[in-house]
UniProtKB/TrEMBL annotation:
It comes from Sinomicrobium oceani. Belongs to the ABC transporter superfamily. Residues 6-227 form the ABC transporter domain. This is Cell division ATP-binding protein FtsE. GO terms for biological process: cell division. PROSITE patterns: ABC_TRANSPORTER_1, ABC_TRANSPORTER_2. Pfam families: ABC_tran.
């Protein structure tokens, strides 16, 4: 189904031989903004890793965009990742080059060749996160919130079908978290599907949306009053 971005059926997720999550059945549809919550060690990162092919799916069935996770081979992973934008708690920008060059590096690594097209794309994604004028700076010259905006811009470079954000506000103060969240909300309003793992319940209250919870080795949807 073209409107389903993630579909998991009877999935169990393991870290080595320990079962982390089981009996996962869920769909994430195009255009949704979905939170993934749960206490530390409940399996949020393992869930995310399964979706981006870092943990192989060995039980149940799952698709992400049009990739079958069960059939995913090592060589398919870069192609899956090009359909995804991944944002982590640590911004992971390359410290030895400017923001523009950080983005250029990703474009070149993912097969872009035309300099003008690359420059236009970089300007477009930096514009989307309100960082158009900061491309000449080095990562250490930016605040944490600005670095995270750049990391979000980087995730947008290849027009991903799904953005996976694992604790994107985990290293930010509350006010900066709200600003970064507004950027993610805007990107979602423009049609992108987002799955965001978070500990930050204040954000959930401020920006309510569909919420999945990892608890007791299960993943289930919760309504906000039960969060
Ligand atoms: N590389 C690994 N090898 C073995 N076990 C792991 C590994 N990574 C995570 N685990 C275990 O898997 C379980 C789920 O961890 P996971 O990191 O997915 O939880 P989480 O909800 O993301 O936690 P946090 O909020 O602290 O990041 C934990 O019991 C953890 O100890």
């Amino acid at each position: 189904m073209p409107n389903t971005i993630v579909e998991l059926r009877d999935v169990a997720i393991y870290q080595r031989e320990s079962l982390v999550l089981s009996e996962i059945n869920l769909d994430i549809n195009k255009g949704e903004f979905v939170y993934l919550i749960g206490k530390t060690g409940s399996g949020k990162s393992s869930f995310m890793k399964t979706l981006y092919g870092d943990l192989p799916l060995t039980q149940g069935s799952g698709t992400v965009t049009d990739f079958d996770l069960r059939a995913l081979k090592e060589k398919d992973i870069p192609f899956l990742r090009r359909k995804l934008g991944i944002v982590f708690q640590d911004f992971n920008l390359l410290p030895d080059r400017t923001i523009n060059d950080n983005l250029l590096f990703v474009l070149k690594a993912t097969g872009w060749k035309d300099k003008e097209e690359m420059d236009a794309k970089i300007e477009e994604v930096l514009g989307r996160v309100g960082m158009k004028t900061k491309g000449f700076k080095f990562p250490h010259q930016l605040s944490g919130g600005e670095q995270q905006r750049v990391a979000i811009a980087r995730a947008l470079l290849n027009d991903p079908e799904l953005i996976l954000a694992d604790e994107p506000t985990g290293n930010l103060d509350p006010q900066t978290s709200v600003e970064v969240m507004k950027v993610l909300q805007e990107i979602n309003r423009n049609g992108r599907t987002i799955l965001m793992a978070t500990h930050d319940y204040a954000l959930l209250l401020k920006f309510p949306s569909k919420t999945l919870k990892c608890d007791g080795s299960k993943v289930f949807e919760v309504v906000q009053k039960n969060v």
